[in-house]
Description:
The protein is mostly beta strands. Helix content is 6%, strand content 24%.
Amino acid sequence: MNAPANPSARAQLQRLKERNRPAVPFVLDGRPAEALAGDTVLTAVLTQTRQLRLNEFSQQPRAGFCLMGACQDCWVRLADGKSLRACQTMIEPGMHICTQPAGSEGAA
Length: 108
């Protein structure tokens, strides 16, 4: 599958304001990405792609639900295995975020 010419064209969130904040480089599922200072991990991911993760039971795409840390729907993990709530965690430079279930990185 070819990536779109403009990756943000497939993003769930489109940034309309505050585009002049400093860039924060991070890695999303092994690919370089960029967020803006002050973004949550949820915002950083959804400005890059259409979904945050797949539900571990139904395999349906999820993009967060309550956006305040109560529903448990936005858990992602870092490359070191640490899990975090994407809606409650601020993006940090160099974060390696994994949205796929552990052990599925090489699956097609």
